[in-house]
Structure formats: C-alpha cells, structure tokens
Amino acid sequence: MAATKQQVLDSLAKIAGPDGSPLTSSGKLSDVMVNDGKVFFSITVDAAAVQAWESVRARAEAAVRAIPGVESAMVALTAERNASAQPSGAGSPRAAGPAARGAPSPIGVPGVAAIIAVASGKGGVGKSTTAVNLALGLRDLGLKVGILDADIYGPSLPKLLAIRERPQTLGGTRLKPITRYGLTVMSIGFLIDEETPMIWRGPMVISALTQMLREVEWGALDVMVVDMPPGTGDAQLTMAQQVPLKGAVIVSTPQDLALIDARRGIAMFRKVNVPVLGIIENMSYFLCPQCGTRSDIFSHGGARHEAERLGVPFLGEVPLHMEIREKSDSGLPVVATVPDGPLAAIYRDIAAKVRDEIKGATRVAPNIVIEA
Ligand SMILES: Nc1ncnc2c1ncn2[C@@H]1O[C@H](COP(=O)(O)OP(=O)(O)OP(=O)(O)O)[C@@H](O)[C@H]1O
Ligand SMILES: [Mg+2]
Is any atom of ligand 1 closer than 6 Å to the C-beta of 225? Predict the structure, then answer.
C-alpha cells in the first residue's frame, strides 16, 4: 500500500533539527507531497545554516525512504539568502543544493562532457518534441546522450517517451535514471504525478533541478540535452545560471510574435554568458502527409532571418507534420520509430550542426548583451 502524507509527517516529527526541536515544528519544512509512493519536500533554511542542516536533510530522506510503501523520496535543502544581504537579487531566491552550495558559478557534472539547453522564449512552440528528437539525432551520430526534463512546472518526458516506471535508488542516495531508445532520461515527472498541479516556490525549483543534475547516476555522456521550461523570467534565468551549460539551442516558430520571444531567450542566455548554439525553426512549413507537397503557410523563414540578424547560427527547419505530433504525443518519437523517413533525416541534420557548434562553443565575454 502506498504511504500517506500523515505517515511521512509522523516520521519527520521524530527527526530533530540542529537545535534539537522536531523538524515538523521548525517552520522550515515545505508542504510534503506524497503521490503513489513518491515523496518530495524541501527544507528551506538560512544560507548561513546550510551546513548544520545537511545532516538533518539526509536523516529526513533516509527516514522517509524507510517507510513501507515509499518508493522514492527526494528531499531538497534550499537556502534563502537574506534580501538585505543581496539587494540586486531581491525577489529571486537562490538555491543551495548540495553541490551548488557556495559555488559562484556552476560546476560540471562528472562524466558529462557537454550540457546543452533547448529553450524557447514562448510556450508550446515544440521545444520538448525538438529536444527529444534532437537527442535521438545526436545518438544516431554515435554519441552517448542523456536528456533532462528541467520543465518542473510541466514535465513532458514521461509522455514523450512513454515512461511509466520510476527511477530506482542506488545505495540509498542516488537515483538511477531511466533508459529509453538508448537515451539516459530523468524527469521530475518520474517522481511526481504529471496530473498533480504543483506549486513550486523559487528555491524548490532550483534545488529539484540541482538534485536531478547531481544526485542522478548519469554515467559517462557526450551530451546532456536539457529541456528547459518556457519563458525568460526569473526562474528560467536562475536555471540558466545554475546549470553548467555549454550552450543553448533556441526553438522558435516563424511568426513575428514567437520571434520576439526567441530574441528574449537569446538575450537571457547571453546575459549569463552561455553561448547560443543556434536557432531551430519549428513548424516552419506544412508538409502534406498524403502527397508530400510543401506549403509555406506561415511567414516561413523568419527564424533564419532572425538568426542572421542576431549573428547566431541557423540550425535548420522542422516542418509542421502530423507524424511528428502523433508520434510525439504517443511516446514514439519519430527519429527513433521512423528512422528511415524524411523527418528523422531533418532532425539528424540539425543534430550534426548542433554537435559541430558544441565543439566550437566557448563561454562568451560577459559584456556581450543584446537587448530584447
Ligand atoms: N513540427 C511539428 N509538427 C507537428 N506538431 C508538432 C511539431 N512540433 C511539436 N508539435 C506538437 O505541438 C505540441 C507542443 O509541442 P511541445 O510539447 O514539444 O512544445 P513545448 O514548446 O515543449 O511546450 P511547453 O511550452 O508546454 O513545454 C505537441 O502536441 C507536439 O506534438
Ligand atoms: Mg515542453
């Protein structure tokens, strides 16, 4: 039988904080989410007290894992910096996950050669679909590839890769990612029910992300593709800062409005010195599934012009095609399941360009900032 929230709270009441009082009455515990054997919560403490709390976090996690019916537990320790101590960052809480704590810039993930973000300024432009097929295209080039779903608010990988199983824990602390189509995969959606609306506070987002980077046994990877949440707000900016990115790929549709958002996305990455590897135009033109005829139903080519204007590489065009949507939405990504078709070839071409851009990418000088 699955564990209940009350059982989790009862076990946390037996864990003492550094001052000896129970964790449950410390005022530092977030809401505890319990869903079908998966437990997630965070402990938010003052930045100066993080070290004293790390063992409390570890004991809390171990206690929850020991409850019968708990299959996985993720306990994040997050630090909120005093607003007066950090005036420029007011309103954008920073995280201090176990590895990021105290580090002024993000450090790499051991064994992972390059981490790239797939991002868009705007939602619904096909970012997750592109991230999955790009990862598969990179796999087809002979690379060892992982994919991390950083879209904490709306994780897509469980659906796009039809993953129902949960990651197992290794040695009680680290999570073993799921393997699908040769990709190493991790998503917060594996730990929390996709249908459960989640209210994430700033520090929880970052620490969940930090844990998925640092406490997952990724193994040796040539490339890790990170599917970022849409938008260019504080949360995305902090994520772009916290993940040791080698570069970012921007997905846009051709319409002017989407391009304005894409420009914001590029500006955001440049602001945090992450090289923009290029732009992909998704839903670029319509490819008739029956006759293969191409029609430019939107103002096709907008992203290419925008890339030229902003001086970033143009990585390719993906057509609007029923097969992409149908396959994607049923967990059978087109590059993996129709590898000999024209759509897979398009994604592989884009992957080859991305691979070349990764090779040439170096972090840019901090003063190159373009305004959106
Ligand atoms: N090239 C394409 N042709 C047809 N359908 C597509 C294409 N790309 C994506 N889609 C479809 O568009 C929808 C949105 O795609 P997706 O979830 O990848 O977007 P997203 O940018 O990640 O969205 P969100 O901002 O919600 O994370 C999905 O139903 C997907 O199957
Ligand atoms: Mg998405």
Answer: no
